[in-house]
Amino acid sequence: MRIGQLSQRTGVPTRMLRYYEEQDLLHPERAENGYRHYPESAVYRVQQIRGLLDSGLTTEIIRRILPFLDRPDEIHLHPQCLTPELAGLLEAEADRITQRIDCLSRNRDAIHAYLVAVRR
Asked: How far, in Å, CA of 100 to CA of 15, rounded?
């Protein structure tokens, strides 16, 4: 599929798909005319990238773990590929995400409490 089709199927703008390619996250084939051609599996790959970016991972970390991702909701990281440095980065990111979740939960609870108080 061409870049416009991938954009439509994933909801990710073509400009962002080109950025993913620049960041070595996507690897389309090139036709003789220079057009990008993406396999069907690129839909899942883009969804995985979006999910990881939305969770706050950097493109550097994503680039390092992406070769070991299978589907948008599964990570198959071979133990030999998990270096101490990468493990440290992932642990720090997991801690940061947990802190964000805690903050969001507190804010959600405060909003609910406000709504209860206002509706009385």
From this structure: 28
Q: Which two tokens stand for residue 37?
A: 């051609």
Q: Could you tell me the two tokens for 4?
A: 């416009």
Q: Give the CA angle between residues 25, 93, 91 to the nearest 5°.
A: 110
Per DSSP, the chain holds a count of helices (H) and strands (E) of 5, 4
Average predicted confidence (pLDDT) for the chain: 89
Task: Tell me the C-alpha distance between 94 and 52, whole Å.
Answer: 11
pTM: 0.71
Q: How far apart are CA 69 and CA 24, in angstroms?
A: 15
Tell me the C-alpha distance between 75 and 72, whole Å.
Answer: 8
Which tokens hold the place of 87? Answer: 């493990």
For residue 4, the 8-state DSSP code is: H
